[in-house]
Amino acid sequence: MVASMGAFVAGPPLPLGRPASASRRCSRRRPVAAADAPEPRATLTLPPPARVSRTPPSPPPAPAAAARKALTVAAAAATVAAVVVGTPLVTPVAPAAAALTHERGVSFNEPAALDGYDPASAVVDLAGCLARGQERALTKDLNALEAATGVRVRILTQNTVTPGVAIRDFWGLNATDASILMVVDLRGGNILNFSVSDPVLKKLPDSFWLETTNRYGNLFYVKDKGQDGAILAAVESIKTCLNREGVCRVTPGIGGDQLAVTLACSAVGGAVAGAAARTGGKRFNGPWVLLFAPLWGIFFVSFGVGTVAAREGLASLDVGKEVAAFATAAAATWWWVPKRFGEGGKAAPEGGDDLL
User: Fold this and answer.
1) Which residues contact 180 (CB under 8 A, 6 or more apart)?
2) Distance of CA 156 to CAs 86, 123, 147, 173, 293, Å?
3) CA dist., res. 356 & res. 343, Å (int)
4) Which DSSP category does 159 fall into?
5) Looking at the predicted structure, is the pLDDT value of residue 179 above 50?
6) Which of 53, 82, 240, 246 has the most other CB atoms within 10 Å of its CB?
7) Residue 196: per-residue pLDDT
8) Is 345 left (phi over 0), alpha (psi -120 to 50) or beta?
């Protein structure tokens, strides 16, 4: 539009002043011949203004990130509940069955994959995760465990070649006998899967298998300890729980990361208790310590020493570390509070203003 209007107004510049003889010429105009008449100028036609829609835009759809965040929070809550309480919010049902099926969920049966393997052996290492010496040692230990507890533990490792459900007929496993099938599947994220019979679930409930799978089968542990290390650690946990009296709801032992979290929780509980003991300017305020007992007790007992004691027993070095972390934090806070805030809460001297 700017270019069209520029062409429309372009032309020779008009004189700013009028000549002296202009008045005389105006009175004696001669008629203009048709040949001398100027050509008519083209008119400029502007397009009509476009209409602007005033309809408010529709709200954007809810982002998928919000849904993923909600699922992540729910999964974290389930994991915390499984570790602290000992009962998972989501119960795993025979996770090894997924490793013995196709992607479409159809059972896979390939007995030919087991050709050359002896059913008397407790380990079938199709993926090559274990050395020959480790296979022989595991078979010896698992056979001794079966003789002592009556529970059959069998291990299958697989990658691209899998026998599917044929492994159950190969070893004669069924749901009524006391048996445990560990499937080490390298095709997924978590490599450990367990199929447990009903008699074993009475002694080792789902909370034990959930924690064992998450602790030893995750990618970080496998990268640090290796595939064979993950298998041996899981077998050792199973052996420890089967040899114990009563129900084993949690995985024995505690990892380094989990121990660091429990020590931090014990220290937080000690800090709360130490601050409550210094309340009111007293050297030890017992009522306030009891008043805040539910708060520091949750950190120290539930998230700290209780978590370690459930996995290692009371007579363990890590339980002593938890108690030391609680006592150290309580003493440090008890000493630091008056240094930072003063001896608040004491009565003011006579004739003086009340201390705030």
Assistant:
1) 151, 152, 153, 154, 194, 195, 196, 197, 200, 238
2) 28, 6, 21, 13, 49
3) 11
4) S
5) yes
6) 82
7) 93
8) left
The single-letter DSSP state of residue 194 is E
Taking a C-beta distance cutoff of 8 angstroms, is the pair 181, 96 a contact?
Answer: yes
Strand partners, 158: 185
Positions of CATH 3.10.310.50 in the chain: 88-242
Per-residue pLDDT reduced to its tens digit, 56-103:
555 544 444 444 454 455 455 544 444 444 433 333 434 554 455 444
CA distances from 176 to 98, 179, 196, 198, 206 (A): 20, 8, 10, 7, 17
Q: Which helix (H) or strand (E) holds 183?
A: strand 179-185
Q: Where are the beta strands (DSSP E) in 48-89?
A: none
Contact 141, 153 (CB under 8 A): no
CATH 3.10.310.50 fits domain 88-242: yes
Closest CA to 171 of 142, 133, 149: 142
Cα angle 61, 63, 67; round to 5: 120
DSSP helix/strand/coil, 163? coil
Exposure letters 217-245 (e unless 16+ CB within 10 A, then b): bbeebbeeeebbebbbbbbebbbebbeee
What local confidence, expressed as pLDDT, does residue 16 receive? 44
pTM of the model: 0.60
Radius of gyration of the chain (CA): 41
Which of 80-89, 139-148, 232-241 has the least mean pLDDT? Answer: 80-89
Residue among 324, 309, 156, 150 nearest 242 (CA): 150
